[in-house]
Design brief:
Two copies of one chain form a homodimer. Helices cover 72% and strands 0% of the residues of chain A. Chain A is built from nine helices and no strands. The N and C termini of chain A lie far apart (75 Å). At the A-B interface, helix 6, helix 7, helix 8 and helix 9 of A face helix 6, helix 7, helix 8 and helix 9 of B. Chain B binds a DNA duplex (30 and 30 nucleotides) through helix 3.
DNA sequence: AGGTTAGCATACCCATGGGTATTGGATACT
DNA sequence: AGTATCCAATACCCATGGGTATGCTAACCT
């Protein structure tokens, strides 16, 4: 059964091999961490073997580096794309907050990978360089968005750069807290936390229990 | 030289053996991470061999668990102790902020360990339980401190629990950011970020460039 | 078609380090 | 003192998995 087959099986394009390996690596590193991810598992998850990995990457470290750079670029692109779509200030902020909160709770892979990156950045200079660049770019994107709101007349309790740092770090901190203690840090709580800080920084009095006015 | 010695070398008390191993393990896990820490290195750093480790702990996982619990208790004690010493509200806040900022930049071991704990909590239920408990206790301690300020008449833009969550997560986020990008997140920046958020949440106008009054 | 190359599969190597079994000497007990 | 016990040192085991060398076949060349 399934005996001889008609001729040669077509070969997977190198580009796709690389993409599938990278994608499998992202899942593996996020789920098991760098050390506990096995190259053979990653390769099989992508439908190949270790040979494919060493044919497309220099080794485990290099594969991790490729994952890091790929995600870094993706993150920055997402951020930059989001800046454009701003509507009414209040609504835009509320929507963004909701989106951020949902991504934290519904896409744990992202947070896990971020933690893995951060942990390795602590010890490896190469990783630190890339992660540092990514973080700076993210903060700058946030700062840019904040500046636009400021230009529209929203008062700020701090300059855009500091405001961006605050929002960025608060978001990361909330993400970490959710991962460590999902039960007491849910989507709604994250929304409230971000909303409260933004409201306070924008010198907008906290919502008076019901809709204002 | 150093030839025969007078008789038996006294044996190190078991309590001290355990303490020294634990302390060496803290340093190792913080510096190299769990996976890249070798039991033999830890043992030698403490002045013993692997035998001492397996005599005092169940194995590598158990040693990590012991480190986690020990640090968890220490963190909670520190937090609780700090609550007592509040003087003038404004000064107390400024002092606390300065202390937190300095600890982040001057004691990287703490942040690194926190990251390691968080990363493992993501995948291991046991670790997640302990880390979750620790985090909740920390937030409650902060909430308690916030409540005291609120009782003294400091207005709050959010309830103490949410305020504590915000401050706690912002602190952790800033710590992570400092580790990943020490150059652009220094002590002063951390102080400003924390100060700005506290000022905003307490509905206190931001410092007017120079001393107020 | 025959030959060459490119690229993944397969088989193998071996350093690493967690875990275990055993030993040896100090402490406690009688 | 003699004996039992405790506890860390030592020696050893071996599963693991990153890395490498080789094989094999599809795609490319001419």
């Amino acid at each position: 059964m399934a005996d001889d087959p008609g001729g040669p099986v077509p070969r997977t394009p190198r580009e796709e091999v690389r993409r599938r390996l990278l994608s499998a690596a992202v899942r593996a590193f996020a789920e098991h961490g760098y050390a506990d991810s096995r190259l053979e598992d990653i390769a099989h998850a992508a439908g190949f073997t270790k040979g494919a990995v060493y044919s497309n990457f220099g080794g485990k470290r290099d594969l991790f580096g490729a994952v890091l750079r790929e995600r870094s670029d993706a993150e920055i692109d997402t951020l930059l794309a989001r800046i454009g779509e701003s509507a009414d200030p209040a609504d835009a902020v509320a929507d963004t907050v909701r989106g951020v909160a949902r991504r934290i709770t519904e896409d744990p892979e992202r947070g896990r990978l971020g933690l893995e990156f951060a942990a390795r950045a602590t010890r490896d200079a190469q990783t630190r360089d890339v992660v540092g660049r990514m973080r700076r770019a993210q903060r700058e994107a946030v700062a840019e968005a904040v500046s636009r709101f400021a230009a529209r007349g929203v008062p700020l309790g701090a300059d855009p750069g500091l405001t961006a740092l605050i929002l960025h770090c608060l978001t990361n901190g909330l993400s970490m807290e959710h991962l460590a203690d999902p039960g007491s840090v849910d989507t709604e709580t994250i929304e409230r936390a971000l909303g409260a800080v933004i409201a306070a920084l924008a010198s907008v009095p906290p919502p008076d229990r019901e809709e204002p006015q």
